[in-house]
Design a protein that fits this description.
This protein is an alpha/beta fold. It has helices at 15-26, 66-74, 109-126, 140-145, 148-155, 159-174, 183-191, 196-200, 202-205, 216-225, 280-286, 305-308, 344-350, 355-370, 403-407, 433-451, and strands at residues 2-11, 31-34, 46-49, 52-55, 60-61, 79-81, 87-91, 97-100, 208-210, 229-230, 235-241, 244-249, 253-262, 273-275, 289-291, 294-301, 311-316, 324-327, 336-343, 379-384, 397-399, 418-420. Strands 1, 2, 10, 11, 12, 13, 14 and 22 form an 8-stranded mixed beta sheet that branches.
Length: 453
């Protein structure tokens, strides 16, 4: 049994937890970071699989992610642009492939006009949303009562336009069917990136990567914390009162502290025994938050063969099993890597078949974009965060229909000495590493203020 005392105990050594811990130490407070896994990083994980370096978790950096970019620069890390030279490809509902450039998919002229109109309308609506307070929008209640799918059906009769607009929020971001979340939740997702147009623009939202992998951010932050990071310590009990907390782990650690930060996905709160229990409203709120579901597929080849055909590697289709795919070749690597994504209902279906059939179907989908060579990778790997005990989904948590306006304002509210911080509750940078860093900074500042009050 190890028993220690700190000013602040932090549960979770991802980007939010390690950021908060560093900020608190700079302010002169002592910390202990407890991590359930045997590694630092949370939903950031760069690993070598069959000789190939893969970004199993989050990986991209976009121009608006100022907190992440500041951290990358401060840590001395380098970035490089995602490969995007050449044509993108789009597959329509009939299975026809079309090469294109630009942001708008090659669809019939009438559908293109509808896409442009809807994007402009969504941009105008997003401009009225404060990503930190979407529930304050004058129409928040009404927007949160209608699913994004039903909202799109009210806007246009063009099915392909609806399918493609939904793709950017449902498949590519929240990784839930468009009928499972509200129009308000969709607007928050877009507002967190600055606009809906930014989500549509793959060259913007998926702009850069970190040389050597994005997991280096929490790894280097954790290095600065030294012996204050404790791995293999799943927390099972948080005892709290007005003056402090006692946190107990499965690894026979007990930490006494003035404050606690839960810096992990909110869907994991029910796995912790709080004494006394969390307030009724918090418990009810947590029942209306759920993770999305996506398989991130990595396929490594002896060379980036698609470039020889003038393709950028960027591919989209709401009608393919892999709804989007990109050139994910590592910096300085002669081999070529494709990354594809299979989300929500498609992911459900693939986990009802064998691993062999799942791989076959996914590679066939990639071949529909890139040709038959895509069926023969040297390395194939599926990132399945739903199977990760301490994550249980991807990319992050969102409210089910009606939950955001009802409970959103209470998501970050501290409970006595217990504070909450993760990308799942960010405004700007929501569901991204940038949001995790922002939340780590925010909660650390709140605790520093409380400690000195």
């Amino acid at each position: 049994m190890t028993e220690i005392t700190r000013d602040v105990v932090i549960v979770g050594a991802g980007a939010a937890g390690t950021t908060a811990a560093n900020e608190l130490k700079k302010a002169g407070l002592s910390v202990a970071v407890l991590e359930a896994r045997d590694r630092v990083g949370g939903r950031l994980w760069t690993d070598v699989v069959d000789g190939a370096m893969l970004e199993i978790g989050g990986q991209w950096v976009s121009p608006d992610q100022e907190a992440l970019k500041e951290t990358i620069e401060e840590l001395g890390l380098e970035t490089y642009r995602r490969y995007r030279e050449g044509d993108s490809v789009y597959v329509n509902a009939s299975g026809e492939l079309t090469r294109f450039t630009g942001e708008i998919f090659p669809v019939p002229e009438a559908t293109e006009k509808e896409l442009v109109r809807l994007i402009e309308k969504l941009d105008a609506m997003v401009a009225l949303i404060d990503p930190d307070k979407p529930w304050e929008h004058p129409d928040a209640e009404a927007l949160d009562r209608i699913s994004f799918e039903a909202w799109l059906e009210e806007q246009t009769q063009d099915q392909e336009a609806r399918d493609n607009i939904a793709l950017f929020i449902a498949g590519a971001m929240l990784t839930k069917p468009a009928y499972a979340f509200s129009a308000l939740q969709a607007l928050l997702m877009a507002a967190s990136a600055g606009s809906f147009s930014n989500l549509v623009d793959a060259d913007y939202i998926l702009d850069e990567r970190v040389v050597g992998g994005l997991q280096q951010v929490p790894l280097l932050l954790a290095e600065r914390l030294g012996d204050d990071v404790f791995l293999g310590q799943p927390v099972h009990t948080v005892q709290w009162h007005a003056d402090g907390v006692t946190v107990i782990t499965d690894g026979d650690m007990t930490v006494h502290a003035r404050f606690a930060i839960l810096a992990h996905a909110p869907i994991l709160y029910p796995w912790i025994d709080f004494a006394p229990p969390l307030p009724r409203l918090k418990q009810q709120m947590h029942q209306h938050i759920s993770m999305g579901f996506v398989i991130k597929v990595h396929a490594v080849y002896d060379r980036p063969f698609w470039r020889e055909d003038g393709l950028s590697g960027t591919a989209f289709s709401p009608y393919e099993i892999a709804h989007e795919a990109y050139d994910n070749t590592n910096h300085g690597d002669e081999r070529g890597t494709l990354v594809g994504f299979v989300s929500d209902r498609n992911a459900d279906d693939l986990f009802r078949v064998s691993a062999e059939e799942r791989k076959e179907r996914i590679l066939l989908s990639l071949a529909n974009y890139y040709g038959p060579q895509a069926k023969e990778p040297l390395v194939y790997f599926e990132s399945d965060w739903g199977a990760e005990e301490w994550t249980r989904g991807a990319y992050a948590a969102s409210f089910d229909l009606g939950g955001l306006a009802r409970y959103g304002a209470d998501l970050r509210t501290p409970v006595g000495p217990i504070h909450f911080a993760c990308s799942d509750m960010a405004g700007a940078g929501y569901q991204h590493v940038d949001g995790a860093i922002r939340m780590g900074r925010l909660v650390a500042a709140n605790i520093v203020a409380a400690a000195h009050s």
